[in-house]
# Entry
Amino acid sequence: MKIRTGFVSNSSSSSFCIFGVCKDEEKIIEKLKKKGVSEEDLSDGIMEYAWEGEIHGDPTPEKLEKVKDNYFYKAGLSVKQVMGESYYTYIGVPWKEIKNDETGKQFQERITVSLRDLLEDPELQPSTCEEAWRDG
Amino acid sequence: MKIRRGFVSNSSTTSFSIYGHYFGENEEVIENIIKEKELDTRIEKEDDLIDPYEILNQNKKFTNAQLIIEYSPWGYFVGRSWHTIKDDETGKEFKETTEKVMTDLFGDEMIFEHHEQGYNDNF
# Structure
């Protein structure tokens, strides 16, 4: 007999599925600074860990908020930041945004070119990144 | 100063991102379709209970089309994961083939759209 584990119905969770890369936020900031981003351009917002209504751990700077429009969205890329055991920054495009006249290969190539250009890394190899996390 | 709520690191979560149909919270809807359309192709049945997840995952037409069934706190979702788009398949072809095979299997009373869910599956 098959037994399937259930789930907590009143939990609040978020998820995404993109074709892109996961990078350390500080390394992304280094690249952006080479492109002209200054400390003043970076956000002073903070990220707090929340679990069952209580704040845990130390707040973490969330610096990329103010530069998202000019550097990521302009290049056709989305940014997702997830707090897990450490702070993960995903850059790419959700698979659901593939165009009607675009093949899977063309979609991957388009994002690979944008990411390599933005992060100045010709060897960068994006892949499908799927994450889910509890945020409530 | 902007403060955004963060995430829980020690929770167990499941997620899916598909193009397909939401069958609703009522399990009987999909169970009745499985009966009506004779989708239970299992040779050996351990009992008479209908488990849509088990039945569809043993249906060759369902699995060959790369369809998946997800049982979430909001009910059943069926569709194809976006990241299974083939190198030579366009976004339009992906949607059309998914719609065709699902209509063949489940009938034409479906609404095809993007569904993305994450949920905690940890007791």
Remarks:
- The radius of gyration of chain A is 17 Å.
- The CA atoms of residues 76 and 93 of chain A lie 8 Å apart.
- The first helix of chain A runs from residue 25 to 34.
